[in-house]
Structure formats: C-alpha cells, structure tokens
Write a structure and sequence with these properties.
The structure is a homotetramer.
Chain A (H helix, E strand, L loop, with lengths): L8 E5 L5 H11 L3 E6 L5 E2 L5 H14 L3 E6 L14 H28 L3 E8 L10 H21 L4 E8 L6 H6 L11 H13 L8 E4 L7
Parallel strand pairs in A: 1-2, 1-4, 2-3, 4-5, 5-6, 6-7
Protein name (chains A, B, C, D): Short-chain dehydrogenase
Pfam family, one (chains A, B, C, D): adh_short_C2
InterPro entries (chains A, B, C, D): KR_dom, NAD(P)-bd_dom_sf, SDR_fam
C-alpha cells in the first residue's frame, strides 16, 4: 500500500489547526483526499458523538468523496481535574468525545473499508492511555477505554483487512495552543506535528505482513 | 486493620444473589455492617448511575449506618456482541453501569473515608480489563476505563489513606446464573464465590505498609 | 489449604535476617517446617546457582524434612550501576543469582510438589520487574527475566497444581540494612517485613479456585 | 535523519540468510555500510557473548568502517522445551545469546554513537517478550530480560541521543528455515522479511521528536 493506485479518502476526526493541519498536508501530499471533521473550526462542523448525524454524514461522504482508505481519530478531550471536583457531566463529556465518537466512526467506516479490501484506523492516545495519574480520573479512564476499544477492533476485524492502531502520544505536540496551555514547557522537548503526521502516514503504509497495533511516540529524552 | 475496633459499614454495589451474597456473608462474619445496592433485587434498589440519587442515598447512609469502611464495586454489565451490531445505546449503557456508577460511588465515599482515616475501594474487573478480544468492544472498553479509573484514584488519594484496588477476575464465578449463561462450562474450573469473597476481605485487611493495587484471580489451571 | 493437616516444609531461598526471618516466623507459626538457604548467613549455606549442589541438597531435604509445600525465592541481587560501567561479570552474576537459582529450585521442587498434589512457588520481584529505569540495565533485565520465568511456570504447571506467583515488591522493606543503604528514606513509607510475610502466607493459603499470578505490593501513598 | 549526509555503518548482529539478508539489502540501498556478524555463516564469525572478542572487534570496526549509525540485535536463540527437561546449560545458553550479546554490543556501541551525536539500537523481541507461555521458561525469560534491558538503555541514554527500541515480532518470519521448523504454517500468515526490514529502517529514520520505544509487529489477522 505504499502508493495509491486509485483515489482514496482519509477522514481526520477531531481536526485542529496544529496537528490536524500537519496530517492533512502529509496525507494530501501522498495523494489522499482529506476529509476534515471537528465540532468547531475547519472542515465539516459535526457533533461526532451524535449517532444520527454521523450516520447521515457518512452517506454524504459516499456520494461526494473517493472511497475511504481509513480514519484518524484525534479527538483530544483533555481534562486535568482533581477527582473530587470532577463532575459527572465532565466524566461523561470526556468519555463521549473520546470513545463514543471513535465507536460511531468505526462502525460506519469498517463495512466501507472491508468492501474495499481493508483500511486503516488510527486512534490517538496519550501517556494516560496506559498509566492513570493523579488528576486524570476522567481523562485516563476515557483513554484506557479508547485503547481497549482499538484492541477489540483489531482482534475482531484484523483478518478482514482492518488495521486498527493505537498511537500512544507520550509527550506534548508543539503548537501555539500547547505553548499557551503549558507555559514554560521546552519546545525542544516537544513532538513536532509534521514528524508525527509522517509516522501516521507510515502506519497507513504498513504492508499487511507487518502491522503494528500499538505505537508509542515520545520526543528524544522524554521521561517515561 | 485486621480487626474492627468500632462498628463500620461496607457498601456492596451491584449486589447479586451469587457473589454478592457471599461477600455479604464474609464481611458480616468479620463484623461489618453490610449495605447492599443494586438496580433490582435484594438491598437498596437504586440507579447507581443517577448522580442525584446516589448523592441523596449517601446522606441517608450517614444517618442510618455506622461509618463507611469501604465500597465494593461489583456491577458487571457483561456484553458480548459483534462490533457492527453493537448499538450506541449499548456502548453507553455498559459504560454507564461500569464507570459512571464507580465514579459516583467513589466521589461520595472518598471524603467520608478520609474523614475516618482512610478506607478500601475495590473495583471488580475481568479478563477483559487488560485484553480486549473480539466481541468485546463495548465491554472491554468499559472495563479498561474502570481499571484506569481505579489507578487514578489510587495515585491521587493513596497518601490520604484510600486503598483503591482493581481485582481482575479472570474466570467465571460459579453460580446458577453462570451455569445457565455458559452451559457446558466445567464447575471445577470456576471461581468459588466464597473463596473470592475471602480474597476481597483480605484486601480490606491489608495493612497500610503492604497495599495491592491490582489483584488477578483465576482458578487453578485456568488459561491466561 | 487454609490449615495444615499433615507436616509440610517450606523452603526460603535467599534467607536474610530481615524479611527472611519474618517469613520464617510467620510460616512456623502457621505450622510449616521452615528450611532456610542462603549463600552465607543463617540456614544452609549453599550456592543456589550450582546445579549439582542444589540437586544433591534436595535429596537431603527428602530424607530430613517433611514433604515440601512450596518454595519462596527471595534472592535479591540488587545492583544500581550506570550501563557503561556495568561489567559482563556483574550482568551475569545478577542474572545467575536471580534467575538461575530460581530455575534450579523450581526444577527440583515441581516434581516433588506435584507428587503431593501441588504446591506454591513465590518469586520475589521488585518495581524493576515491570519498569526498567536508568541505572538498572543489569538488575531490571534479571527481574524481567524472573517475572517471565514465573509466568511460564504458572502456565505450564498450573493445571497440575503448581501455583507460581510473582510478588512485585514496589518499595523498600524496612530493615537495618535498608536504613544503611538508603539513608534518608522515611521508615513510615517502607514495607513492614512482618506485614509482607503475612501476605506471602496468604498466597500459600489461596484456595485453588482463586489463584493470583502476580501481586503488587507497596506502602500506602507510595508513588508508582 | 531521513537521509545520510556522510557515510555511516550499521551493524547487524545475528546475521542470517533470511531476515538478516533482507536487512542488509534495505540498509545498503539506503546508503549504509552494513557490517554483519554471526556465530557461523556470512559476515564476521564471532562469538558475540565473548567480552574480549567483542571489544577487540569494535576496535577493528573503528579502523575499517565508517562511523556507526546503529546496531540491530537479531540473535534469536529460540527454544521450546518443557520446563522439567530444560537443562541449566540451555537456560544459560539462551540467556547468553540473547542478553549477554546485547549487553556487550550496547556497551561498545553507545559511547561511539554518542560521540557522533546519537544513533539507533534495535533489539528484536518476540511474542514471548511480553507473555511467557508453556514450554518457554528459558526462551521467554531471556526475551523478557532483553526487553527490560532495552528499556533501561532507552531511559538511561535517551537524552544523549541513543534511540533504543524493542521490536516485538509477534509472528513467524517467512523463510526456508521457518518452513522447515514449523511445517504446515501458512506462508500467507507470515511476516515478509523485506517488509520487516523496511520497518527497521523506518525506526532508524524516526526524527528525534517522535521516537518509538517498543514496536509490535504481526501479520494481518494474526492472533494476539
């Protein structure tokens, strides 16, 4: 799958100006038609946690775009909050943004990908996908859930050509937003969004004999 | 904490006739007042995923029962269903029963336990808490989430006396219900509910210098 | 197995004045005959990495002691050393003390235990059994190896009654030796050797329907 | 590091006709000078577990080859043997081939790589690096050890430019040797050595902002 022999689309869910834009550049340069979706901002403005909306949108995609090659789930829903001040609404909102959206997209994408002989699903995780630290009851719980979901998809649909991958992003992705949210962080110790986008593209290109299910990524010298 | 010097309560959430009853017997024999809650059946009939209901109920507990020593979360919410036929409602329902209930109970219990010098929170997991197999996208996603939640509680509140444990129940608990659901299973290869209840009691009794955060349990010779 | 109906022995390998002595007290109080072995110090002075010596010693045990109920492997072989100043001799010595000794003891013990209907093997691990940090190339490599070894024993001989457990001791065990080696450590944040010994005894007592394969232990509030 | 600006060497330890040759082709095509070593066969015939021999050989490499860019450790030392019939000599031999060789090569390579601004070390693992099954007491113990070793190297030397990676090869690599050893295996479900070699090359090319520490690889539909 190292080159596209016919037009294919890739859907970026949770599109953002930083890493989302880098993904779009890299996949477009590789010949993919890029479809962007987010709650607000560039691309299709869509509530990815709304079952009906997601279902109808995929019908439009079928009509308007080349066949799907894969989906990149990049909805972040970051929350650091002490357990006792976390609200039920926050817990649910973080889970819904992370997991319900991934579920709805996957359920729509899988039959379409299988009808094309397969495809790639990438779920963006974080350090908190494997280790739940203080302040991350809601966030890590959702990221653990997403990691388990990705494993189940990989094991259930792998033999039918579905390559489901968790990327464990164990560091901060450099962006204006990151600089504002984590002031004092050293940009030299951050993940370059273009470098990361290139890694995602490599996952789409992995031949069927060498599939990765879980890829950890961190900057050189990052503690882990 | 190997013996009770004053009356204390333990709350069993997701009480059931099989393992729940065994837990009740063992904790009562050890001197605890047992409070039972489930959606339907014995004990308090309560929607453990309803924030207001749980909050009000804990106020009643404060009035009616000895101080809390801990909570046992045993809401199972088992689902085996192919990914493509899983509904959004099922995904949410399994998560809500597993994770939202654990969150609501924990948020109420932690301040009460800390005011008593600490206490024990046990979250019942399953094989699917660590490995998500085919057919378990919803179930494992929820169980992964619960495991992450328990870790976050342990790390955030451990130093204040909260002993949060995941028990990974890697096997079937023998009961009439299990026999009906998994016909053909060998009862000799199942977990005895009384044996398991005794292990939960031991976790409540672990001295503060030797706390376990995650306990795997399986019958002799069980594959894993 | 919650009480001994006939005399049984338990072998403590890597016996030491601190935790080893606590183990001996607890198992003797529970009715076991305790057999102690270490390279130097109390008990049998024996090179546990010497195949012939271990083999001959077990023949003596058959003659002199009640049938074996289990083995506790507690050979520590701690080493913190920068990678580049670690010698090949150190790497080998740490591995030999940790892994070769466990292998030789296991190979002798398993047939004896199986002939008695089963028994318990506990391998003492450390934080470094699951996470290899800087300075621990030799130590963690050996502890990872021991953890893998214990898993293989559990899976290969579990159905024949062999209960093989790794205990992940994620903290310092309080002792004079520990105080000298890690000056400034807070004894309140250490593992009490008697508490830990009681946990080991509980593992020997786990009924066959509720076996644990890996038990993590750390003091309240310990970071992990 | 996506292209070579000056001549660099890569050392393949445990060179073999199948995967080793594929690695050599891919790295040579990418501009690297390939240095091959194995106990017997193509390339330098060298006992990689002999401290003096390895040390002297690196002195020769300094003289005869371009500066090192990295090392690929691919010494397999496969053994499937029941625990009770495994000999101490086998346990040691498997460990020595897997771990001692990795240690000796790493200790020589790290200072050389650091003097060049960094480099890549890849340690080839297997399914048994993470899960120790029956029959694999010796093999998995050694592969667990190697995984721990790689982690320690990554954490200790990552900030100085050393990118240490474990590749978890979770499947059979197609070759004549594999076909002979595992008759009846479906070549369609095997890892293509050229595909795998390309993945190793990608790891060498990962920019410093997106390093992977552990990469699992399996063929499409492989069970795990």
């Amino acid at each position: 799958m190292s080159s596209l022999t016919s037009p294919r689309s890739v859907l970026i869910a949770g599109y953002s100006a930083g890493f989302g834009a880098a993904l779009a550049r890299h996949f477009e340069a590789a010949g993919y038609t890029v479809i962007k979706a987010s709650r607000s901002g560039d691309g299709e403005q869509l509530d990815l946690t709304d079952e009906t909306a997601v279902h109808q949108w995929f019908s439009c995609l079928d009509r308007d775009y080349p066949p799907l090659a894969g989906v990149i789930h990049n909805v972040m829903a970051f929350l650091r909050e002490p357990l006792l001040s976390t609200t039920a609404a926050q817990l649910e909102s973080v889970w819904r943004a992370s997991v319900m959206s991934a579920f709805l997209l996957t359920r729509e994408a899988v039959p379409r990908l299988e009808s094309q002989g397969g495809g790639t699903l990438i779920y963006s995780g974080a350090s908190g996908s494997r280790r739940a630290g203080p302040g991350f009851a809601a966030f890590s719980s959702a990221k653990f859930a997403l990691r388990g979901f990705a494993q189940a998809v990989a094991r259930e649909h792998g033999a039918r050509g579905i390559h489901a991958v968790s990327v464990i992003i164990d560091g901060l992705i450099a962006s204006d937003k990151t600089a504002a949210r984590f002031p004092g962080s050293d940009p030299q110790r951050m993940i370059n969004p273009d470098d990361l986008a290139a890694q995602y593209l490599e996952l789409f290109r992995q031949p069927a004999s060498v599939w990765t299910q879980e890829l950890d990524i961190r900057p050189m010298g990052g503690s882990f």
